[in-house]
Amino acid sequence: MDINTVPMKFGPKGSHISEEKQTIIPHHPEVVQIAYPTLEAVHPGQLPGEIYAYYEPVKEPWHRRCMSRKRIWLTAIILIITITAVALGTALGLTLPKKKVESGNVQSTPSNPSSSAYPFATTSSIPSPTARPTSIATLSPLAVTAWRNTKSPNNEFSIQLVFQDDQDRLQSIMYNTTFKEWRQTQIAAVAKKSTPLAITRFYHGAYSSMGTPNDEQVELFYLDQKNRLSEWNWDWDANNFTGGPGSINANNFTAASASRLTTYWPFIYYQDQDDYLREIRYSYGYGWHNQSVDTKIHECAALGVVPIAQNNARVGVFYQAQDGRLKEVQRDYTSGDYSYEAHSLSQAIPLPSESGPSPFTAFALTNLTTASALDTYILYQDSSATIQMQWRYEDTGWKGPKTFDALKGADNGTGIACITMETAAASAPTLRVDSDIPRCYFQSGGNVREVEMVRDGGEEEWRVVGYLPIT
């Protein structure tokens, strides 16, 4: 796909926009397009789905970790005391006991079954793959997106999940219900170790003069080795399984070294080097606009963004405040104004630590009784490594936290990714119950577990779908 350019005319106050020209579509002019017959499942007529994710990388080099600057001296003092104690113990002939390491049996990772393959999970019924995949890092960042082909007789859908391996390479694994199989490919993008990942997508038909009406474009955002915000994208209607770099790369937007990323098209949020929350918005015809939200957040703060009104009229931006509590600020799409919602969220979650940020994600589903309204859900991992859920029906206030058997057994510090479908497409302007794909992903024993929410009579339950066949 060719990139057209137009002279830059304006941008919001305080924005940082690249020099004289901007691309009018976030794509690279020389994307290599390769078709694989086994995954030609993104059919013409496929309607859009949308997801963003907030991912919990860990084990970065010490200068990139989330340890508070104010705690460094305290850590140094504790380290000196510990070294002195060990030296004294050695001099007195003392020996510290070694922790016993137990090894378990290893089984192969099962292929992903259909969502009806497992009943509601109990602690004993959760399937337990024990073959640890080698192409995904321990506590890898995760990002996932999905879209449906509503014109197909069975309303087929596709899911694409992105993760990082131990060599810091990005990998993609994609599933389609037509072929009922996952296909894993390596992404040629160069990202920093334990990069945050955020993924979203949009429907070209939303821009009347942009591409064909059925063209689906997936947008992946990550940080490079200099903490610059970077983009990789795919045109799935062109069966483009390779993808290529996107236009945001030319802007040199730089994040804090410990910043997280979150996105819901056309928004991206990250943390700047002064710990302020920043917004990047894509504007058709004018490119990328970067401005401050004027909200200072916790260093290495968990981040998330979801639609809270149909047609993207309002989005909710979740962040970990300086007091460590999870909070929300809402953005009006038309005016661009930010405000705190009436039933304000103020949930205590674990503080970011040396090993990484607090695992967290958010997603939205259509309200079961009021089709014009959206429900909001958040998942986070508490201090005992248990994944908890809180939720809000329309604007009725927050409920929970509550956990479920299918969410048990997550690795401590795992990334969590969930799917939210699009609510701003020209041909499907609102989220619908029959288009929702309420699935989430996290690591358990190093494997990526797929779980699905079932809403029956107003009650939520989670069941295990399976484990992704990552090699």
Automatic annotation (TrEMBL):
Native source species: Clohesyomyces aquaticus
Similarity annotation: Belongs to the fungal fucose-specific lectin family.
One Pfam family in the UniProt entry: Fungal_lectin
Ranges annotated as biased composition (Polar residues): 104-132
Gene3D superfamilies reported in the protein's UniProt record: Fucose-specific lectin
Disordered, as annotated region: 101-132
This protein's name: Uncharacterized protein
Ranges that cross the membrane: 72-96
InterPro entries recorded: Fungal_lectin
Keyword annotations from UniProtKB, A to Z: Membrane, Transmembrane, Transmembrane helix
